[in-house]
Design goal:
The protein is mainly α and 152 residues long. 75% of the residues lie in helices and 0% in strands.
Length: 152
């Protein structure tokens, strides 16, 4: 019952992820199609990443953790904290990575603005939905960029 709830995305209350907004806007006729597409997206990444990173299993586990945290239907701050905590294992790759300044301050900005935006939109109803959505889109973009830059 719990896993079915996560896979079917029935609760469309705002959260850190971006799927709630997408499924709030999609027509009911296409809902099951997009549920299959979004849930299969994670599965289709498993084999190519395993082939590409077969010589680095610890890094592969990190990439899987980051992808699941980014594409999960009901993510939490703990999901992001898990892969950000594992980021310290790859100090050599971080030293050679480009755009670390922008990524670091992107994460800091999202971390500082998340409680403020949540309070303004959910509790005080004085903020636009799109500002709240753009904040979490920037979190997803930072996560995706970090994974891509570490893979190259």
């Amino acid at each position: 019952r719990t896993y079915g709830f996560i896979l079917t995305v029935k609760d469309l209350s705002p959260n850190i992820g971006v799927l709630w907004y997408f499924f709030a806007e999609v027509f009911d006729f296409f809902r099951s199609f997009f549920l299959i597409v979004f849930n299969m997206n994670i599965i289709f990444m498993v084999l190519p990443l395993a082939i590409r990173l077969k010589h680095r299993p610890c890094f592969l586990a990190f990439v899987y953790t980051a992808i699941v945290a980014m594409l999960k239907s009901y993510p939490s701050a703990g999901d992001s904290a898990l892969y950000l905590g594992l980021l310290g294992l790859f100090a050599n790759e971080l030293a050679e990575m480009q755009f670390t300044f922008f990524l670091f301050f992107g994460y800091i900005g999202v971390s500082l603005l998340s409680p403020v935006m949540h309070n303004l939109w959910i509790w005080r109803v004085s903020l636009s939905l799109y500002l709240y959505l753009y904040l979490y889109l920037s979190l997803s973009l930072s996560t995706h960029t970090c994974c891509v830059l570490l893979l190259t």
